[in-house]
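User: Could you go from structure to sequence for me? I need the amino acid at each position, not a summary. Structure tokens:
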């Protein structure tokens, strides 16, 4: 049996052909695939641009521009009040790939103010233009006009008046009265459209109570504008400095107290001694802050300057309106006051020397100096023994110019003469003193 001595042939793949140059690029599968993708994209882009259908779309929230500067209203001092930020919807048409990418900022809508020549609500026509590509058309607006209120600007300062709303109109508890209300600010500035501002007749601060007040109370209040016909005001701003206006309501208790008078420029001898005074009526019903009841023992009905007292009986009349510290229930009450300085004499033989005259308070903005060398013929009131014991060196003038109407140059002011020492004698009247004033640097 013959053996087949031929070598076995291996299963060898055929050798690939190698291409060079342009043919290598053409027959490269990756290149072919990339080229196919680019060609497909180009065909799609051509179709999208050239064959894209024309569609309508709505651009929402396009802001309306109202240019007031250099406009007719501006030249007439007219301003816009109320709503000023308007938007509209704009319908456009064009090729889909263009209009689908449009935004509100690609379109300008302007309100025409050319015919605004007076105050009031005005209908402004809207004009729309494209900001960029012209390859789309404006079809319509959601509205062709907007209503804007024009007027001149005005501001007025109004004092605040109180208004308290209480159950059964009883503001305070029985036996009490309401004192003078105090606000955190006395007035407010109201500004806005002149037509509305001119309708305002007053401003009230309103507070509502749940129950009658038992003690002094501070509460927030609501500022309300008052008009003759209760008209609503739409274009008004109230300046309250961004804080609530508070209302302090003092509660006063009715009590009966003895009446007194207050003395000023009293000599040292009367600091611990009673002045012989008689007041009619000797008692009066007054209203005192509940918080001060224990401190108040009497009511001073007026002030008497010792320089107004002469020898003998001195009569004065005061009204309830002269009472400043407390409230007299009977506002029409009159008080007759008699200061009996019987037993005293009057002597005009005294002189205030220059060395005893000085300025104790300068007027702001001025520097003053005394030019008088003395004050002659000062009238002194007192018992004979007290007057005899006085000397010129016990008389002084202390000028407080703080509240005087000081002018540059030389002028004369009235001065009180003070008697120093432990005496009950005092100087009557006031006396002229010449001063020289210059502007303070």
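Assistant: Here is the amino acid at each position, in order:
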């Amino acid at each position: 049996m013959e053996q087949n001595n031929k070598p076995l042939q291996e299963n060898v793949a055929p050798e690939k052909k190698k291409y060079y140059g342009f043919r290598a690029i053409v027959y490269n599968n990756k290149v072919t695939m990339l080229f196919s993708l680019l060609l497909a994209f180009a065909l799609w882009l051509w179709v999208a641009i050239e064959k894209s259908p024309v569609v309508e779309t709505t651009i929402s929230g396009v802001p309306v521009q109202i240019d007031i500067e250099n406009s007719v209203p501006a030249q007439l001092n007219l301003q816009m009040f109320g709503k000023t930020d308007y938007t509209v919807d704009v319908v456009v048409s064009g090729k889909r790939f263009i209009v689908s990418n449009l935004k509100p900022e690609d379109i300008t809508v302007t309100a025409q103010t050319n015919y605004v020549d007076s105050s009031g609500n005005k209908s402004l026509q809207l004009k729309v233009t494209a900001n960029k590509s012209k390859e789309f058309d404006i079809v319509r607006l959601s509205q062709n006009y907007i209503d804007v209120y024009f007027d001149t600007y005005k501001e007025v300062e109004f004092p605040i008046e109180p208004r308290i709303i209480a159950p059964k109109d009883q503001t305070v508890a029985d036996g009490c009265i309401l004192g003078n209300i105090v606000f955190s600010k006395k007035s407010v500035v109201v500004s806005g459209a002149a037509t509305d501002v001119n309708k305002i007749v007053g401003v009230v601060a309103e507070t509502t109570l749940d129950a009658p007040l038992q003690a002094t109370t501070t509460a927030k209040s609501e500022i309300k504008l008052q008009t003759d016909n209760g008209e609503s005001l739409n274009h008004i701003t109230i300046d309250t400095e961004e804080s609530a206006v508070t209302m302090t309501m003092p509660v006063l208790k009715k009590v009966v107290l003895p009446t007194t008078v207050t003395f000023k420029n009293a000599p040292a001898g009367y600091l611990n001694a009673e002045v012989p005074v008689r007041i009619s009526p000797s008692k009066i019903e007054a209203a005192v802050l509940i918080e001060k009841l224990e401190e108040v023992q009497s009511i001073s009905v007026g002030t008497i300057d010792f320089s107004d007292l002469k020898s003998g009986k001195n009569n004065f009349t005061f009204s309830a309106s002269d009472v400043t510290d407390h409230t007299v229930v009977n506002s029409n009450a009159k008080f007759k006051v008699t200061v009996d300085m019987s037993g005293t004499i009057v002597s005009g033989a005294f002189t205030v020397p220059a060395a005893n005259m000085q300025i104790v308070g300068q007027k702001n903005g001025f520097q003053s100096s005394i030019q008088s060398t003395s004050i002659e013929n000062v009238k002194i009131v007192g018992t004979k023994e007290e007057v005899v014991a006085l000397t010129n060196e016990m008389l002084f003038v202390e000028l407080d110019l703080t509240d005087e109407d000081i002018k540059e140059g030389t002028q004369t002011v009235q001065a009180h003469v003070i008697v120093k020492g432990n005496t009950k004698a005092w100087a009557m009247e006031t006396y002229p003193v010449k001063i020289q004033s210059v502007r303070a640097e």
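One structural detail worth keeping in mind: The first strand starts at residue 54 and ends at 65.
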